[in-house]
Amino acid sequence: MSLNVVALTGWLAGDPELRFTQSGKALTTFQIRVRERVSGEVKFDYHDCQAWANTAEYIANHGVKGTPIEIKGRLSVDRWVAADGTKRKATKVVAESAELKKTEVSDNSAEPVEQPETMTPIVDPFDGE
Q1: How many domains in the chain?
Q2: Taking the model in full, what pTM does it have?
């Protein structure tokens, strides 16, 4: 038995990019920045992701850099031969579902705050970059 399941929670590392195939199917590419602790130090990893159809349009229409996001999907590996003849590969996450936390940015602050229940500030990992 094999299993290919991925779940990531983090922040959009940039604005999602929405495109459409020739047949009209939506495709959004984006990166998720995920925080983890390694030997007591905070470290950030970036994961390349893509979403198709309704999930793609949802992320592209409602997500911007810094938006908290949770996705569930699967790993996909693209393989190709470069112009110099070397074999290359890139791994990405194909999001089959996504949930964006609704945020609001105050006119007086660049810090987003969570809506609507708690109004608890969300720490933006991009501050200072």
Answers
A1: 1
A2: 0.76
Residue 125 confidence (pLDDT) above 80: no
Strands 6-12 and 26-38: antiparallel
- Tell me what pLDDT residue 10 has: 95
Q: What rounded mean pLDDT belongs to the chain?
A: 84
Dihedral over alpha carbons 10, 15, 21, 26 (to 10 degrees): 60
pLDDT 10s digits, 44-56:
999 999 999 999 9
The CA-based diameter of the chain, rounded to the nearest angstrom, is: 55
* DSSP string for residues in 65-91: TT-EEEEEEEEEEEEEE-TTS-EEEEE
Q: What is the CATH number of the domain that holds 35?
A: 2.40.50.140
88 is in which domain, residue-wise?
6-103
Between 110 and 66, the more confident residue is 66
Distance (Å, whole) CA 73 – CA 8? 9
Q: CA–CA separation, 74 vs 23, rounded Å?
A: 24
Q: How far apart are CA 62 and CA 20, in angstroms?
A: 17
